[in-house]
What does this fold into?
Amino acid sequence: MPITVRKLLPDGTTDLTWDGQITHQHSDGVQIEAVFLLRDRIDFGYVVFEKGDVFRERFFTDRWYAIFAIHSHVDNSLKGWYCNISRPVTITETEIQMMDLALDVWVDPDGACTVLDEDEFAALAVSDAEKQNARAAVEEIQQLARAHKLGTLFV
It folds into this structure.
């Protein structure tokens, strides 16, 4: 079933949208598959996204993050996991709304973690409770990565 993901900024404005297909309904969220089509190639230094790469995305209604397992369009090999720190998502019949909190975690296939965008996160006008939840989400992702359990969140 098709669905649109709407990534929102903390002020409620839309930052980015993309379309995907729901591949699994979970009691605590949804899993979708989307194809990277924004640009031909983006080199972030820690990973390169290429047009056609497959994003298997897991959204949670009760966790402060979403996890994207990114697979190469060439051979389906896992490039790694991009973890968006966000408020728990809202899911309707046609849309997933994800309120992004700037902080992200990149996890290599071997489990090595890199926390990204800490300066942007520090500058956000969000409550102390939201910042605590975001920091706890980073720690949870790091624990899952160390235990090599990120993949177990996907069907």
Summary: The mean pLDDT is 96. Helices lie at 118-123, 128-146.
